Amino acid sequence: MTTFLGMPATAPRGVGNLRGDQTFPEAAHDALGNDQMRRNLRHATTTIRGKSGKVIGELPDWQRLRDAGSAIKADVMARLPFLLEQLEQNVTAAGGIVHWAADANEANAIVTRLVKETGSDRVIKVKSMATQEIGLNEALEEAGIAPVETDLAELIVQLGHDKPSHILVPAIHRNRSEIREIFLREMPGVDPALTDDPPVLAAAARRYLRETFLSTTVAVSGANFAIADTGTLAVVESEGNGRMCLTLPDTLITVMGIEKVLPTWQDLEVFLQLLPRASTGERMNPYTTMWTGVTPGDGPQNFHLILLDNGRSAVLADEAGRSALHCIRCSACLNVCPVYERTGGHAYGSVYPGPIGAILSPQLTGIEDNASLPYASSLCGACFDACPVKIDIPSILVHLRNEVPHPRGERAAMKAAARIMDRPRLYASAQRAAKLARIAGRRGRGLPPPLTGWTASRDLPEMPSQTFRDWWAAR
C-alpha cells in the first residue's frame, strides 16, 4: 500500500483532467466569443435556478437541513481515517474487495488490471466525476479497452470528442441541433431522418445503448455516498442508465473519492433531501440505487471499491480550505455564478468548473498549477448562499489568492503600499499625490507600463477631488 492519509501529496501531472492548457483569463477570453454557447448556458442555468428555487421554497426547514449537512461533513473530515477503515471492513465483510489508490496513476492501473482479468475489452460506465478527474477513459483506451458512457449527456460529450462543461449536465453547452448533428455523425445505425426533438434524440440514444447494456460484463461507476457502518454504496441519477450498469454486469468496479463517506444511514437521509433540490430542482432523485457488497444470484457477483485520494489529503491538510471536500457535486454554485454563466465550464481547464472548481482544483493540484482559478470570481457570494452544505467558497477563494505565487513587481508594489499605509504622514502625502491619477483616463489607460497590466482587467476608480482628511479639516 502506498496511500497514507494525512501525508499530503497533490494530484500528479500528465494524467487526468484537473489542469488546463491555458490560464483562466486566456480561456475565458476565447469562450466569451462563442455567442451560441453563452445563449445555451443562459437558458439552461436560468431554467435550473427557477426549478430549484421553487422546490427549495417548499421546505420550511431548508436552512436547518443545510446546517445539518455542513455539520455532518465537518464531522466526516474530522474522523476520515476511522470512517474509511470502517467502510473497508464492512465492504469486505459483505463480499466486496477494497483497493486504495494514492493518485490517478494507481487508480487507473487498478481498474485496467481488474477489467483485463475479466477478459472483457469493453466497459459500460455510470456518470462519474472521479473517473473523469483521473482520466480513466483515456487510460482504458490506451490499454485496448473501450469505455462506453451511458449517461445521455456524457454520451453526447463522448461522441462529440468533447469535454464536459458542467458538473451535473456535462453537455450544457450544446443545444439540441448540435446534439442531432453529433448523433448523425458519430452514432452507429442512427436514422438519417433523425430530428432534433428531445424525445427523438433520447430514443436514438436508448436504442444505441440497449445492446451494450445486455452484452457488456463489466461496469465502472462512481459513488455519491458510502455508508461506513454498513458498507453500503449509493448512486443517484435521473435516467435509469446507472441502475442498468449497477445491476446487469457480472463485475462492478466503483471509483470513489475518499471524502464521499458518511457515518450512518441517518446521515444519508439529510443529503437525499438536499441533493436533488439543489441540483436538478427535484423533490427526490428519480433513481437512487444502493448496494452492499455481493449478493449470490442477484446483481454483480464481483464488486471492487477503489478509494481514491489524488490530492484529497492535501486539501484535508489545509484548515482554511478543507471544507471544499464537503462538496456533494450538486452544481448549485455553477447555476448561480455570473462568471460561469458567461464563460462556461471549459474555461476552467478542469473537470470541476465554476466556483467549486475554482477552490477544489487548485488544492488538488497544488496552487501553482491552477494559480488563475481563485481569481475566476467576483466574490459576489451567490455560490455560498446556494451551496446546500454551506461551503464558504468566497472565503476560500480569498485564502487561495493569498497562497498564489505573485510576480516580483506585484510583491514590491504591495510591500511599498504597506509601508506607506503604516505611516500616517506619508499616507496623507500619497493621497494628495494620487489626485494626479485623475488624468489617467478611463480604466487607467493613461498609466505607464507595467501598471497597465494591473488595469487591463480592473477598473481604476476615479480619484475624488477632495480626500476625507481635507474634508474633515475644512469642517
Automatic annotation (TrEMBL):
GO biological process, one term: lactate metabolic process
Domain spans labelled 4Fe-4S ferredoxin-type: 324-391
Record flagged with keyword Kinase: no
InterPro entries for the chain: 4Fe4S_Fe-S-bd, 4Fe4S_Fe_S_CS, FTHF_cligase-like_sf, Helical_ferredxn, LUD_dom, LutB/LldF, LutB_C, NagB/RpiA_transferase-like
A Pfam short name: LUD_dom
Domain Lactate utilization protein B C-terminal: 402-475
Record GO terms (molecular function): 4 iron, 4 sulfur cluster binding; metal ion binding
Domain LUD: 84-294
Keywords: 4Fe-4S, Electron transport, Iron, Iron-sulfur, Metal-binding, Repeat, Transport
Name of the featured protein: L-lactate dehydrogenase complex protein LldF
Natural source organism: Actinoplanes lutulentus
